[in-house]
Write a structure and sequence with these properties.
It contains seven helices and no strands. With 189 residues, the chain is mostly helical. The chain has one domain. Helix 1 runs antiparallel to helix 7 and helix 3 packs across helix 4.
Length: 189
């Protein structure tokens, strides 16, 4: 596969991480640079790791991995998104410096990174089936996801200055919609 094709795949895979990054950027009130570095690094790392895992799993486990991965991604994103919506609806505006969803918390970062990189696992499997090498594409996917995630966090931060609770509700809805997209793409197609 040529570099342009790999780059297009990388951008497509990074869109889920971008949406989550925008959501995170809307709610991060303190340690913004640290949160951006941690989230973008985690998203980039898992987006690079999952194609490698998928490639090694190859076609032997493809039916098992692809058969359930979309359900896992949906549940993780819906759970975190529902929590964000709940926080946005119950925010009375008095909390000022609280971080409703701690995007610096390792368990949250891990869940989001795994949930947004499930599609990359399937890409790795498809590369194995096509007998394409995976290392360079995985590195490109990781770097593109990192950059796009940083951009999403910065955009989300700008949105947060206007209306934090509305942005939090919107961010939660985005996460649930991303989860639904993953679920429906895999069930319907």
């Amino acid at each position: 596969m040529n570099l342009l094709g790999i780059f297009v795949i990388a951008v497509g895979l990074a869109m889920d991480a971008f949406a989550v990054s925008v959501s995170a950027g809307t709610m991060t009130l303190k340690d913004k640079l640290k949160t951006a570095a941690v989230l973008a690094s985690a998203f980039g790392f898992f987006q690079a790791l999952m194609p490698i895992v998928g490639w090694y799993a190859g076609t032997f486990f493809a039916w098992l991995i692809i058969g359930y991965a979309h359900y896992v991604a949906f549940v993780l994103l819906a759970f975190i998104g529902a929590g964000m919506i709940k926080e946005g609806l119950t925010d009375d505006g008095a909390g000022g410096n609280e971080m409703p969803q701690d995007f610096g918390k390792p368990s949250v970062v891990l869940l989001l990174a795994i949930a947004t990189s499930i599609d990359a696992l399937a890409v790795g499997i498809s590369f194995a089936v096509l007998e394409e090498p995976i290392l360079i594409p995985a590195i490109i996917i990781g770097i593109v996801t990192f950059v796009i995630s940083v951009i999403g966090l910065c955009l989300g931060d700008k949105l947060s200055e206007k209306s934090r609770s509305k942005a939090e509700i919107f961010g939660g809805i985005i996460l649930i919609l991303v989860g639904l997209k993953i679920l429906l793409e895999n069930i319907l197609f």
